[in-house]
User: What shape does this take?
Amino acid sequence: MNAPVEAFTIAILGEGPEAWLAALAMARTVPVARRPVTVLTDPDAPVSSPAVALHPSVTDWHNALRLDDATLVNRAAGAFSFGAALTGWTGPEQTWFNPFSGFGAPIGPVPFYPIALKLRAAGVPMRLSNFSLAALAAQTNRFQVPDRAPGSVLSTCRHGLHADAHGLAKLLRESALAAGVVEEQGTIRDIEWAPDGAVTALRLDGDRRLEAGLWLDASGPAARLASRLQANRRDDWSGLLPCDRRLQARVRTVGTPPPYRHLETMAQGVIEHLPLHGSTALSAWFDASEIDDESVHLKVRDAAGAERLEGLTIEPFRPGRAVEPWVANCVALGEAAMQLEPLGPGAFHFARTALQRLLELMPGEGGSEAVRTEFNRRAAEEQDHARDFVLAHYRLNARQGEPFWDAARQGAVTPGLAHRREVFEARGIVPLEDEEPLEADAWLNLFDEHGLVPRHAGPLVAGLDLDTLAGHAEKVRTFMLGALRTMPSHEDTLLSLRVAKGQLESTIESVSLAPPGRGEDRTARK
Amino acid sequence: MNVLIVGGGTAGWMSAAALSRLLPPRTIDITLVESEQIGTVGVGEATVPHIRFFNQRLGFDEADFIARTGATFKLGIEFRDWARKGDAYLHPFGAYGEPLDGVPFHQAWLQARRLGLAGDLPRYSLPVRAAAADRFRPPDPDPEAIGSTYSYAYQFDALRYAAFLRAHAERRGVRRVEGRITDTELDGESGFVTAVTLEDGRRLEADLFIDCSGFRGLLIEQALETGYENWQHWLPCDRAWAAPCPADGPPPPYTRATALEAGWAWRIPLQHRVGNGHVYASDFIDDDAAQDALLAQMEHPPSDAPRQLRFVTGKRRRQWHRNVVAIGLASGFLEPLESTSIHLIQLAIGYLVEHFPDPDFDPVCAAEFNRIMDLEYERIRDFLVLHYHATEREDTAFWRHMKHLDIPDSLRARMALFRERGVVTPYRHGMFLDASWYAVYFGQRVTPAAPDPAAVGLDAERLKTHLERLDQGIGEAVEAMPPHAEYLDGLLARPRGAAA
Assistant: This one.
């Protein structure tokens, strides 16, 4: 290659929000005049998921992308989220709440969990989510964007967002095009390889050719390019996780969406309700050997309380990950790299962390061997932890007498999950490693709600008497209830962010709304 | 629960002071047994900034601590002659520069240097320039101020620190027993240590034993035969000569580590003297020559006869085995090149509190403690090996050996990543942060092939302004700092705060 390596071009495959997020992130990091970015969209690609859940870590990234909550609320039917409600996992009709943020407050060096354990052992009912402002707010349909003022109760919360996938993709696309990204439409006919196994160009329909130095495959489970790279082996999790089919649809709704998503169990799988403004996106994961598509369709429809589902798709679902998401000069992102039920963060979150990792490890003139190895090592660690979190929900489930759930309780446990459970059961703490997709409190709450009981609460709480502990818990709760009373409803918060159409134009960057024709954008920019 | 700490010294008294402070008073009864006949490895001790948090948690007043331990302030370690003879760099307690448009500083600097816009990297570190000017003042509490961009540690007399800690621990109810241990009793079934017997026949029972007996590991090794993981093939230095001498001028605010023919020499400035030592590999130099090499580079003749120390670099296979937790030199040995010994003690105490045994001694707690301590040990080991391996020196057999060493895979991958793209992967457990790795890499001529493409995309004019602003800001901040000796004198002259 004669051109300086940092000047190589980037091509991104995909049409959903992951692809456009990738394009925007790349264009915001290095000017496109120096490193052109092309997004190759395929008009024949299957429709992607109807909605995406933006984890708090995604909203943390907004500044870098010059996005904000208000724009997402206005442009992508956005609704806020404080976490997930889970029904049927810990027992019939039982619901528990896992917020994005933690619980209670420590007493000096004594964390809240041992305090809760000791009070509970003395007969005081202690549910962790009753000591989370985010969980209390979610239950009462209140929402306020958390501040960062140290010492404020609101700063203990973290928030995510649900967004319409189409609206989000459109918004990201407009920003990306405005930043100089070029869109090409086309279907891959053939791949041109370099002798070292790198992809040098794609041959497209209509005798067109697309060259790039680095390829990002964000084309979803089809992995249009990544699946063609020989070395792209897959770590298959179908022996661990039982669901092998996914339904996706949406229903229209009226009224304010609840500020959380809902994950409920059914006899042969899981249903997710992801509320948006004006609609709810529904997904179901199930075991096709236990239930047929039509029955799942009816169950989801009933669960949604709707007469009919819109945009219904049912497709195979293959839990697992690419052993090496980055092979040669092709990096798989999102569902092209991993399929996993989003009992924790979802595919959009993992596309985001992969992009952040890629930006940190972007190859320079020194080559790409070490950065690729490091990218794959970190991705594997993160994704295995994410899988373990999902697996824990199944292995610890309390639905008795149903073949799907009885089997899910008994399957194998990974060493990573076994280790976390072991340390939790000994001490009520959760060990964390380097690439963790979840905070320790998310694990604590999961284990706690599923009925695991630590044998010992640790030495520090032993020095505090019950009156002190009860007084502390009461104070924390009073403090949170006080903050809850002054918190606006989710509806009011959304209304305050919704702006009239005229004002809206000034809140987002001026964008070219030219149709995504080829060549025109390129010429226009010069 | 009854806890018996075996051995005084820094490890023993840090453990006694911390456990008596951190654990609830009515739940634990601590005894420390030590013998005045057994010496401790009490050389001048250089530390890392974490020691301040240890002292704070124990409620120590800084001025009081400084006065009682002969301490000086420390902004980093100066390494001389490591990559090449004649080279010198400071590993500072603080990051270089500030990121620009989200691009890490060292990447922006690499790009600026290619464009001919940058000075040497150390120019952009406040602690490096303050150390070079022998100036010191605690960091500015305002996180926006350039004067907040560093941390600091101490250099102190370890024997005096042990005495300081002892006074504190005894006030908090720790019982000290004078005596020499001659026998250890094990439970026939569990293999747990049940008691130790002293020379005079007294018997001390406990539930938990903390072995701070030094290299020999009286309980962890001699009684429990836990086993030792030898790392000498990576870190071959196995002996040291140590000797104090009077200071030549006021103490600088840093420790010095000078590479010699078959090892390296430390210089630790205290208020009242200078601690000197020579760490060497006996396969490459004999004892007499090593002693001569130490004396030859000291500024004054020794005020005490040189003492020899022998050690085996590595760690116990398990730092916590049955009901014995090894802390300090009983747990393993890593040469003091990066002042890590006291920090390892501090880490072990912290993780012990977190995983403190319940009456049933849940083995999971020990396993988790060992897992984390192993990570800490291995990662410090890699960092130390880097100092020796990242060299161009081939002037002696020792340096040729180190330059061509078969290094640990974990370090090899880290170095490859840095050489290729200048990236340091952060650890969750691992005391040295990315700034430390950058300092040693750049200080020892390990340079990335190219900067981050995002840095290459930065506007040259903005880059230039950013560097000039930093350079000037640091220069002004250093100018405003008092000389180290003056700051120290002022602190010592101040009326003491309430003793802890």
Q: What stands out?
A: The interface with chain A takes residues 22-28, 102, 353-356, 358, 360, 362, 364-365, 368, 371-372, 413, 416-417, 419-421, 423, 425-428, 448-454, 456-457 of chain B (CB under 8 Å). The CA atoms of residues 140 and 148 of chain B lie 5 Å apart. Chain B has a mean pLDDT of 95. The longest strand of chain B covers residues 239-245.
